Amino acid sequence: MTAMTDASNITRAIVAAHAARFGTTSHAADSFTSDDPIYRGAKQACGTLGFIDIDAECLARAWRAQSERNGRFDAEAWPDTPADFGLRSFPPTRRNDAFPPCPEKLGLYAVLPDAQWVGRMARAGVPTVQLRFKSDDVGAIEHEVQAAVEAVRGTGALLFINDHWKNAIAARAYGLHLGQEDLDALAPAELRTIRDSGIRLGVSTHGYAEMLRADLASPSYIAMGAVYPTTLKRMATAPQGVARLAAYARLMRGYPQVGIGGVDEERMPEVLATGVGSVAVVRALVADPQPEEAARRLMAICNRSA
């Protein structure tokens, strides 16, 4: 599904709903109410297009806010102004509660299963690496996080630790990456502890509602996906596709952005063309028989888009 298809279907539904009530395609801003036909038409159309309910709600409210702000309804303008979604001022780095900044373009972002892989890809020149170590063994987690920090020393790679925030802070890792559920589960005091440590924070998002929730934490970067089908984890939302990823990138343009989910060498150029400054890969490296060579090819693609 292309961005044009999304916009065309939604705007037709909004125009129809709008005309049924007002007999026109524009009206004064003070005519808007909570039962406005623009809101109702957009939400219904977004649901039909496959947006989950909470994302359809975000889009419907934004479309109505956009029309209120402009004093008219524009059937061609897909909402992408942060204020229309209730987002705070951009760039987030100017906020008092912002996490420390990271590079705007993180380049090739390798998500890796253990410290050995982290060191291997860091030595291959991959600019951003993430340790996604899955274990219930407290000692093993502590050891692996510390080993990953040691593995990138002297390489120039930026290391993010997935989930294990206390270990990441203790080991003085460059950054921490949290999924949406992990971020939501943090108590306010815990989030302050993470921020006060000086560590960078990246957050996974899977649509409009999660991007808005992530923005409340003012993280260092936002990851958006899954772009394509992936077998690595069960997703609550359908694959987003590059058209929606491009819309997300326009909306969240105050953040460094990472596209993630099912990306391989063939798909990487179209993901980068959406405007994201980084692409995360997993199988494209760890499942390749020559991962260092694969990394060089993928980094070359990222460099050509820079």
Structure description:
The chain has 306 residues and is α/β, with parallel strands linked by helices. The chain folds into 2 domains: 3-85, no CATH class; 101-305, Aldolase class I (TIM Barrel, Alpha-Beta Barrel), CATH 3.20.20.70. 45% of the residues lie in helices and 12% in strands. Helix 4 runs parallel beside helix 5.
How are the SSEs ordered, and which strands pair?
Blueprint: H1 3-22, H2 37-48, H3 53-70, E1 107-112, H4 115-123, E2 128-131, H5 138-152, E3 158-162, H6 165-170, E4 175-178, H7 180-185, H8 188-196, E5 200-205, H9 208-215, E6 221-225, H10 241-251, E7 257-260, H11 268-272, E8 278-281, H12 283-286, H13 291-305
Parallel strand pairs: 1-2, 1-8, 2-3, 3-4, 4-5, 5-6, 6-7, 7-8
Helix pairs in contact: 1-2, 2-3, 4-5
CATH superfamily name of the largest domain?
Aldolase class I
Question: So how many helices?
Answer: 13
- CATH-defined topology of the largest domain: TIM Barrel
Mean pLDDT: 88
The largest beta-sheet arranges its strands as 1-2-3-4-5-6-7-8
Major sheet summary line? 8 strands, parallel, barrel
Q: What's the CATH architecture of the largest domain? A: Alpha-Beta Barrel
Low-pLDDT windows of residues:
14-33
Order of helices and strands: HHHEHEHEHEHHEHEHEHEHH
How many domains, as an integer? 2
Which structural class is indicated by helix and strand composition? alpha/beta
How far apart are the first and last residues' alpha carbons, in Å? Answer: 26 Å
Helix content: 40-55%
What proportion of the residues form beta strands (DSSP E)? Answer: 5-15%
CATH first level of the largest domain: which class?
A: Alpha Beta
The Rg value, from CA coordinates, equals 21 Å
- The overall strand count is 8
Which term fits the overall shape? globular
